[in-house]
Amino acid sequence: xxxxxxxxxxxxxxxxxETVTTLTQLKKNxxxxxxxxxxxxxxxxxxxxxxxxxKGTNVHLGAQNCHWEEKGAYTGEVSxxxxxxxxxxxxxxxxxxxxxYFGETDESVNKRMFAALKGGLIPIVCIGETLxxxxxxxxxxxxxxxxxxxxxxxxxxxxGQIVIAYEPVWAIGxxxxxxxxxxxxxxxxxxxxxxxxxxSLASENVRVLYGGSVKPENVSELMQQKNIDxxxxxxxxxxxxxxxxxxxxx
Length: 250
Ligand code: PEP
Prior knowledge:
single chain, alpha/beta, 44% helix, binds phosphoenolpyruvate
């Protein structure tokens, strides 16, 4: 049985005081939640303060990116050990905004994913097609490449441990959500592809989250789909009350 994960990606939003206020409210709101795992990924500057609020609660801490080297002359980068030290359990790898604006490739996503696993963090590896790719009818081949290259080389244990986030780029921050049927079709494809590469056990265990304008109004139908194991939520995770409604989708 896959345990659902609802993760909030705060992107480049929130100061330290804003983080503390939001998370103090959120942890109270969701203290009674047992049906899913919960994670929040604030910006790097707020991680330590966030951990101060979340330590010992059922809201886990995640980061939005990591570098693959353990340490070194990489100005502006943050290592997995630093994130673990700050209290993180998860780290996002290959978010489409990183692919689009910061030159992230399947190869660099792969290195980040392995660094996270080596350092004991759970990578949330993001994949997804652009609107142009969907309209050209190449959604499945784009996703196949992203999975085959970005997630190449996992061993039997690791292949069940990672989390995949399917985030159609055209649905991120646009208010357009894939219909539950559209999302389920893609999730089923990803799970089948994963089974072909890593076997049926890994494919049964791997969690595939949906991301792209998840809101309180659409979350429960998305979560009813067989192959959707949670959500990666951007804008709607910024407000404690809204994110609470998403977490309490049941
Ligand atoms: C995201 O940032 O991963 C995301 C899905 O954003 P939004 O929910 O705002 O579309």
